[in-house]
Design a protein that fits this description.
The structure is a single chain. By secondary structure, the protein is an alpha/beta fold. The chain is 34% helix and 21% strand. It has helices at 48-55, 78-88, 104-109, 119-132, 148-160, 178-193, 206-209, 242-250, 281-301, and strands spanning 6-17, 20-32, 37-41, 63-68, 71-72, 89-92, 166-170, 198-202, 214-219, 222-223, 227-228.
């Protein structure tokens, strides 16, 4: 029997704030199998987002072991984590985090600018990702020209465009109305059921958690028992050949990725793609995007 995709063993995480130690996670252990759709639930301050950041390699555990896809994240340097994260993790934020001056197409393309894919390959995979979320007719729209639900769909397309092994979603419906939230949850459910994507979603909403195959509750940084949902809701959606779309994305034969924008984080020391002198403004935003993925937790704590 193969090992779980994610193995969290006796993990603790604490922060120092104004001279006091704040314990965010307290000896948490959790396994996540490939193909799971896990909803992390619990009150504010229970450690849900902290756990998500540990899985993404955005933050590091104080104690214990976080193993994702057979990699002990504690053994990777910051530059190695940047490469690993862009190759294996798709992150969906509650606040979308789209670059306002870029179109939907350009926002989705950002992670691919950190790869060795050609322009034609990037274009093909961006179109495929936007088609999967039903926004092929909004490719040239900027965020201000989109509704909140459409912005989050662009963010989902950006998260899946590199064909990641693990999708992490931090309150993906928190800023949306009920109808838009259901549309987003339906997309995530489709990604899990039809494309077999492994998803970990933080949510306060029991109805949102109902779309997951499993639920895990956190309380004061500790876990209770995990429960399996009988089934996730299935809603009518546009007929798409999802298997074919997934194959189109995978056909890119992804290589090592690097952060090479206007980023002073150590990940820019990595070797790989180097923007040319004629590189456009998207390289700048790609660097900022990669750095933002790393610095997000630290900025939130400040």
């Amino acid at each position: 029997m193969s090992n779980p995709m994610v193995q969290i063993h006796d993990v603790s995480k604490s922060f120092s704030r104004e001279g006091f130690e704040v314990i965010a996670l307290d000896h948490v252990s959790l396994d996540i199998e490939q193909g799971d759709f896990l909803a992390l639930m619990g009150p504010s301050g229970s450690g849900k987002s902290t756990l998500l950041n540990l899985l993404a390699g955005i933050d590091r555990a104080t104690a214990g072991k976080v193993d994702v896809l057979g990699t002990d994240l504690a053994r990777l340097s910051e530059s190695q984590l940047a490469v690993w994260r862009n190759a294996h993790i798709g992150y969906i934020f509650q606040t979308f985090n789209l670059i306002p001056v870029l179109t939907a197409f350009e926002n989705v393309e950002l992670p691919l600018l950190l790869t060795k894919l050609s322009k034609a390959e990037r274009r093909k995979n961006v179109r495929t990702a936007l088609e999967l979320v039903g926004l092929e007719d909004r490719m040239n729209h900027q965020p201000r020209q989109l509704s909140g639900g459409q912005e989050q769909r662009v963010a989902i397309a950006r998260a899946i465009v590199t064909d990641p092994n693990l999708i992490l979603a931090d309150e993906p419906t928190g800023n949306l109305d009920a109808k838009a939230g259901e549309e987003i949850l339906s997309i995530l459910s489709t990604l899990n059921r039809e494309l077999k994507k492994t998803i970990v979603m933080v949510t306060h909403d029991p109805q949102a958690a109902g779309y997951a195959t499993h639920e895990q509750h956190l309380e004061k940084g500790a876990t209770d028992g995990q429960r399996m949902n009988v089934g996730s809701p299935i809603h009518d959606s546009k007929e798409i050949d999802h298997a074919s779309k997934a194959q189109d994305i995978r056909r890119g034969a992804w290589h090592a990725v690097v952060c090479r924008g206007a980023c002073d984080h150590p990940c820019r020391e990595s070797t790989g793609v180097v923007p040319t002198a004629k590189a456009d403004h998207r390289w700048l935003y790609a660097g900022l995007y990669a750095r933002g993925m790393y610095c997000r937790a630290q900025e939130e704590r400040r």
